Amino acid sequence: xxxxxxxxxAGFLGSHLxxxxxxxxxxxxxxxxxxxxxxxxxxxxxGNPYFELxxxxxxxxxFAEVDEIYNLACPASPIHYQFNAIKTVKTSVxxxxxxxxxxxxxHAKILQASTSEVYGDPEVHPQPESYWGNVNPIGPRxxxxxxxxxxxxxxxxxxxQNGVKTKIVRIFNTYGPRMSVNxxxxxxxxxxxxxxxxxxxxxxxxxxxxxxxxxxxxxEGFIRMMNTPDTVVGPINLGNPVEFTMIELAEKIISLxxxxxxxxxxxxxxxxxxxxxxxxxxxxxxxxxxxxxxxxEDGLIPTIEYFKLKLxx
Length: 313
Ligand code: NAD
Ligand code: UDP
Known about the structure:
With about 325 residues, this protein is an alpha/beta fold. The protein has a domain at about 5-175 and about 215-240 and about 275-295: Rossmann fold, CATH 3.40.50.720. Helix content is about 35%, strand content about 15%. The strands form four sheets. A seven-stranded parallel sheet has the order 3-2-1-4-5-6-11, with helices on both faces. Strands 7-10 form a two-stranded parallel sheet. Helix 1 (about 10-25) packs across helix 6. The protein starts with a strand and ends with a helix. The model has no long low-confidence stretch (mean pLDDT about 95). Uridine-5'-diphosphate (UDP) binds near residues 189 and 269.
């Protein structure tokens, strides 16, 4: 039995990861400051003797004897990470230093949840890991983008300088049950609006693209990455390469929910990337043929069911 620390474990992705790790017979310590996550996401695990929920902020050191660390703590939605930009940088950078220090001390493997945002508004399409990105260092998204870029630097440096077994995955837009109702990201916004027959808020002309990955596909990628030999450090893209415009996403959600909602256009936020799609060749080659299995429609159905239940109390 391995003892595994998941930071941000009460969040959307973290809660699915904790569940999978517990189901596979591991002991899990879930550390979270509940900024965007909540106990409800892991309530079904509480009471399991192998699951421990700890309120802790990773900008301060944390001590535990563990075999593996998944570092997911960081607000991920633009509304949440811009709410307190300085705190977002601290979480990414000081959080990474604290968790890498822990990994170094206890000789644990450590995986960083990085992001496609390191590519900024990409001028190369689709994005391979070799692309260095096009990030505005002082724009509204920079607290997140640059924080995550610096965290990648730290993960590489601890690996090269101190021999820490680090791994970096760059996650592309991922959705599914347990996104928070006030998350503000596009899938949850559109589903909630459609279920309530409210206007669907398209930012800009809606021709910008994203590639949407269902949470289960990502968690499989996480586990496979953690289990790679120590020589595999990454970064490795994890995402679904099927690309949609925001108008196409809205239309799909309206149809799946039989909604009477109509589309309304709102201003495009500053520095909103115009296109995004992962090149997943490296992930396929490195992670035993890993590739996303769940089509957008198939992932939207359980996501819609989840939000139906949430909205009905
Ligand atoms: P989320 O907001 O649901 O989860 C983040 C969790 O981290 C929350 O539970 C929050 O309370 C916790 N947290 C925040 N700051 C903390 C701190 N200082 N100390 C301890 N806990 C803290 O978001 P998510 O979508 O589950 O994202 C999880 C991770 O994956 C993040 O690091 C995010 O950057 C990364 N990521 C997610 C996506 C995606 O599409 N979901 C894409 C790219 C990267
Ligand atoms: N978006 C939108 N309406 C919304 C929320 C988001 O049109 O209510 C757009 C947003 O401008 C962006 C895309 O959807 O182009 C994805 O936004 P999200 O915040 O989900 O993630 P991002 O990939 O931008 O970090």
